Amino acid sequence: MSGFGLDERVALVTGGARGIGAAYVRALHESGARVVIADILDDDGAALAAELGDRAVFVHLDVTDEGQWDAAVQASVDAFGSIDVLVNNAGIANAAPIEHLTTEKWDAVIAVNLTGVFFGCRAVVPTMKAQGSGSIINISSVEGMRGSPGLHGYTAAKFGVRGLSQSLAVELGAFGIRVNSVHPGFINTQMTTRIDPAHLDIPLGRPGEPSDLAGTIVFLASDASSFTSGAEFVVDGGMIAG
Ligand code: NAD
Questions:
Q1: If you measure from the C-alpha of residue 12 to the centroid of ligand 1, how many angstroms do you get, rounded to a whole number?
Q2: What is the pTM of this model?
Q3: Is the pLDDT of residue 5 over 90?
Q4: Which of 61, 126, 149, 150 could be 72's S-S partner, Cβ–Cβ 3.0 to 4.6 Å?
């Protein structure tokens, strides 16, 4: 079996300044990776990079801005010489019954949660193709596998991330680039503070914490998953199996 170690690997995590993204950053760093924390939250991102030390840098990145993507990839190459792992994690959520879902809300959630993932994949592929390897990990949701009332834009974006991951996995396998999607269930973060998990039927009996996703991300970043591409990883305490 190939190892889970990430020594010398360079990983860029969008939305890495807080929440689940920060847990990914910590786990990848703990496993030996050099990490690029990319976010619009400059203070939180810079503080996390400073805490982790010289194998971590922060770069300001609004994932909806194509030009900022080129700069972020360049910053990663400048700091650490390559980019081996991209975790497209940045996301927002909004909810409304369909007749009250404004075009602005729809556009905003599609821009961050779907177009931002497209921009990220497109930006890193030339570097990954040149080095003949790479792992792209796209964060979808259980809402990318089923419908939920009110979450129309979010669900459309997360289904889109799932489909984009599969088409990319097929196109990029010949270049040694693996692409997988991860589908978290209910995780306690700022995104979910207004939702009471008590009514959710979670077989493992508790809501998730950001650290519950860490093992899946380290696995997908590492050589332990060297034959895994185009796959969908549900991490939800068993919630949608029922
Ligand atoms: P969060 O709100 O705590 O963190 C989201 C992060 O994304 C923040 O750091 C934020 O600054 C960043 N971000 C937002 N817009 C951005 C932009 N335009 N450019 C760059 N960064 C931006 O939320 P979270 O719960 O940690 O969510 C992380 C990811 O996990 C999201 O994609 C979310 O859809 C997904 N997810 C979350 C849950 C959950 O229950 N919390 C479940 C399934 C999927």
A1: 15
A2: 0.98
A3: yes
A4: 61
